[in-house]
Amino acid sequence: MTRLNLVLLLAVLVSALYLVNTQYESRRLFTALDKANSEAQKLAQDNDRLQVEKRTQATPGRVEQLARAKLQMRPASPAITQYVTYSAAAASAPSNGGAP
Fold first, then answer.
1. Staple 73 to which of 19, 21, 67, 83, CB 3.0 to 4.6 Å?
2. What is the pTM of this model?
3. With helix as H, strand as E and coil as C, how does the chain read?
4. 35-73 per-position pLDDT tens digit
């Protein structure tokens, strides 16, 4: 009888320790899941913000402003336009390697 009680007590202790360990692991996993969800929400907000910034940076007015300021570009006008004509005589003339 005493032996049976000892075995049952040992089984209850092992079961209690297993239960405590399982609860601890469950809480740890829930905390990790909550942190991961918070991080995912933060990343989604960052993505939305970056998409808005990207659309803002790509507006035609902004692109034109940067082209003028950084690349010294200007709109084409007849005053600065050069027209190249093609003549059949110049195209059929033999080239002699640039010698006169």
1. 67
2. 0.53
3. CHHHHHHHHHHHHHHHHHHHHHHHHHHHHHHHHHHHHHHHHHHHHHHHHHHHHHHHHCCHHHHHHHHHHHHCCCCCCCCCCCCCCCCHHHHHCCCCCCCC
4. 999 999 999 999 999 999 999 888 988 888 888 898 888
Within 10 angstroms of residue 67's Cβ, the number of other Cβ atoms is 13
Determine the structural domain holding residue 40 and report its residue range. Answer: 36-71
Question: How many domains does the chain divide into?
Answer: 1
Q: Which residue has the tokens 């084409």?
A: 76
3 inside domain: no
The region, left, alpha or beta by phi > 0 then psi within -120 to 50, assigned to residue 86 is beta
